[in-house]
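Box 4.2: Ligand-aware structure prediction
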Amino acid sequence: MTLIGPSMMCADMGRLLKDMESLNRGGVDYYHFDIMDGTFVPNFAMSPDMLRTLRPYTDRPFDIHLMVEEPERYIELFVEAGADWISVHAETKVHLQRALQMIRDSGLKAGVALNPSTPLNCLEYVLDVTDYVCLMTVNPGFAGQKFIPSTYRKISDLKKMIKRSGEDVRIQVDGNISFETIPGVLDRGADLLVCGTSCLFKPNTDLELAALELRGFLEAKPAQAAVREG
Ligand code: DX5
Ligand code: ZN
C-alpha cells in the first residue's frame, strides 16, 4: 500500500498542531520531519522539540530525515524525542552500517537517504540492515523545487537492486511529489511518498480535504502490472 507522509517543514509553523490534527483527520499514514544543520544542506528546518510537542497528538509514525553531518551523534536524541523511523544520508561523514544498526537496535526503522546524484552502489552491503531508502527527487534543503527527471530511472534501478538482494526494503521519494510525478514514481516501485508543497501544503488549502483528495487519487490509480523501466 502506498503511504502518504506529509512533510511537516511545509506546515504553518504558527499552527503546527492544528495542521497535524487536520492531517490526522485526513487519514495520512506517517509524518516526515526534515532535520537540517545548515552544513550538510544550506538551510535549517525542524527540531526534536517540535517532535516532543506533537508526539502526544498522534500515534502515526514519525519519520525523521537527518540532513545533517555525522548523524550518529543525533540518533539517541531523536529516539528519545519520539521518532519511529530515522533516515541518514550516505553522503555524510557517517559509518553507515553502524548508524543503521544503531537505529535498528533502538527499535526503530532504519533508512538510507541519497541525494539525486549519488549512485546506488553505496547500498550494496547495507540492504540487510535497511528498512527503506529515501531517494531525494530534488536536491535536499528546500521545498518548492522541481523534480529531477533522472531520478525516475534511479527508482527503477533501486527496485531491481532490492529485488536481487531478496531484502524487504521500501522506496521513499522526497521532493516535488505531485499529482504529475506520483504516477511515474509509483510505476517504478516507490511506495512511501513525502508530500510537501507539491501536493498537500498548497496556499489556502484545507489540509484534511487535501489529504482525502490525494488518497482518492492514489486509490483511483490502477496498480502497475510490472515495474516500469527507466
Ligand atoms: C527537500 C524537502 C522537500 C519537502 C517537500 O529537502 O524534503 O522535498 O519535504 O516539499 P516539496 O513538495 O515542495 O518538494
Ligand atoms: Zn525529507
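In the box above, the bound molecule is D-xylitol-5-phosphate. The first helix runs from residue 16 to 25.
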